[in-house]
């Protein structure tokens, strides 16, 4: 079941890379919290054509770290859009995720603003098929 996530802005990419999830502390503090999933980010990307460096931890879903999380990225777009002084228009960011785990992913996010309010967010990017399957139901 997807629940809300906790956005955690950090100082820089190095702080995001050095982060580790303590399951002991997560169990005590966040497991039953309304936002148990953790999305760490810094506005200090590795690539010159990116804007954000991020990592996603979702132990309540059995995910120690996710290399690309569209739901988290689009939530971050809303967060960044609310904090941007632009009153009207479309804001765009490229998010790097999965780099620290050797599965680099680029997520492109947008936030539309009208009269200073975020009215719509989007996420996209390229994908690679890594497996395929079928199932027969009697």
Describe the model.
By secondary structure, the chain is an alpha/beta fold. It has a single domain (5-124), classed as Diaminopimelate Epimerase, Chain A, domain 1 (Roll). The protein is 20% helix and 36% strand. Strands 1, 2, 3, 4, 5, 6 and 7 form a seven-stranded mixed beta sheet that branches. A hairpin with a 4-residue loop joins β3 and β4.
Number of domains: 1
CATH class: Alpha Beta
Strand share of the residues? 35-45%
Unreliable runs: none
Instruction: Give the N-to-C terminal Cα separation.
Output: 27 Å
**Helical fraction:** 10-25%
Classify the fold: give the CATH topology: Diaminopimelate Epimerase, Chain A, domain 1
**What is the average of the pLDDT values?**
92
- The total of helices stands at 3
Number of E-type strands: 7
CATH superfamily label: Diaminopimelate Epimerase, Chain A, domain 1
Output the helix-strand order.
EHHEEEHEEE
Shape: globular
Q: Which class of secondary structure composition applies to the elements?
A: alpha/beta
Question: Tags for this entry?
Answer:
seven-stranded mixed sheet; 3 helices; single chain; 138 residues; Diaminopimelate Epimerase, Chain A, domain 1; 7 strands; alpha/beta
Q: What would you say about this model in short?
A:
The chain has helices at residues 13-18, 23-29, 70-83; strands spanning 5-9, 37-42, 52-58, 63-66, 89-97, 105-114, 117-124.
Describe the protein's topology.
Blueprint: E1 5-9, H1 13-18, H2 23-29, E2 37-42, E3 52-58, E4 63-66, H3 70-83, E5 89-97, E6 105-114, E7 117-124
Parallel strand pairs: 1-2, 3-5
Antiparallel strand pairs: 2-3, 3-4, 5-6, 6-7
């Amino acid at each position: 079941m997807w629940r809300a996530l906790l956005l955690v802005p950090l100082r820089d990419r190095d702080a995001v890379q050095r982060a580790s999830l303590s399951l002991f502390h997560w169990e005590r503090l966040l497991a039953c919290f309304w936002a148990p999933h953790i999305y760490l980010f810094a506005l200090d990307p590795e690539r010159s054509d990116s804007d954000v460096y991020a990592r996603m931890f979702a132990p309540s879903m059995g995910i120690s770290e996710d290399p690309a999380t569209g739901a988290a990225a689009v939530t971050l777009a809303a967060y960044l859009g609310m904090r941007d002084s632009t009153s009207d228009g479309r804001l765009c960011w490229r998010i790097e995720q999965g780099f620290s785990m050797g599965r680099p992913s680029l997520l492109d996010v947008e936030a539309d603003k009208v009269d200073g309010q975020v009215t719509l967010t989007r996420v996209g990017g390229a994908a690679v098929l890594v497996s395929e399957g079928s199932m027969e139901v009697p």
